[in-house]
Amino acid sequence: MAAELLANPASKAGAIEITNGSCLCGSITYTVSGTPSTTVLCHCTSCKKPSGSAFMANNFYEASKLNITGPTSTLKKYNDTSPDAGGFVQRYFCGDCGSNIFIKNSKWENAVIVATGTLDYEEALTEWKPDAEFFCKRRGPWLSNAGAIEEKKFNAMT
Asked: How far apart (Å, rounded) are the C-alpha atoms in residues 36 and 26?
């Protein structure tokens, strides 16, 4: 079940490392420590729209692992009430360039969802692969051979 992937936001086994990230214009910078507890492609409408793509690639971390290091004057928050899973999420983005930075979900208070594309180092992006996919009922059929293994593709997120 998809909820099991998110029940414990503790990092996966591995060396603790610091990863830098930023928005497109560089106004907002951050660090995240450790490896993500899970990596997900989300096909829900409320992830597709802000990403401007067919899905959004997300890394789940313990909330305490994210540290905004640059000025926060352009960091904006949008309370998104459209998620398919119900409730709302808080989407944080750069008010200058519009880059999605991270998401907080009230269902997982100890977790933060970092937009994978905002990571600064290429190694993280070339080695990245999804552990799971959420809301596959909204997944483009042309993506059938990409993403997570079949057993980790969920029509919803619960």
From this structure: 23
